[in-house]
Amino acid sequence: MAHAWDIDRWRAEDVQPRLAEWAGRQFGAAHAQEIAEIRQGYYELAAARRPEFIQSGVFSLVHHGDEAERRMKAYRSLISRTEAVAGQLPADHQDALFELLQ
Predict the structure, then answer these.
(1) pLDDT tens, position by position, 36-80
(2) pTM for the full model?
(3) d(CA 16, CA 1)
(4) Most buried residue, 12, 20, 26, 83, by most Cβ within 10 Å?
(5) Is the pLDDT score of 96 beyond 60?
(6) Burial, 81: exposed, middle or buried (Cβ in 10 Å; 0-12, 13-18, 19+)?
């Protein structure tokens, strides 16, 4: 809501610090930066093409250096990083992490 309240105050470079601030409030400062980077990585992938709209043939397996495999590797990396964070959080944060990040 802070963004909506004063939209002229925020710039593109403010996104990452705001994500980290949010993550710190939800899950603690120790994991804030990693969670923010995971979310940012997901947003970047989703901006290229939302996962629910991907169908066969959208990303080439042979052109552009196998863009489909690069995309799958990026998603796998985000999943691995998320699972690593989840393993470090207390039990009472697991449901929130699953719902908000996983």
Answers:
(1) 999 999 988 888 766 555 556 666 556 666 777 788 899 999 999
(2) 0.77
(3) 16
(4) 20
(5) yes
(6) middle
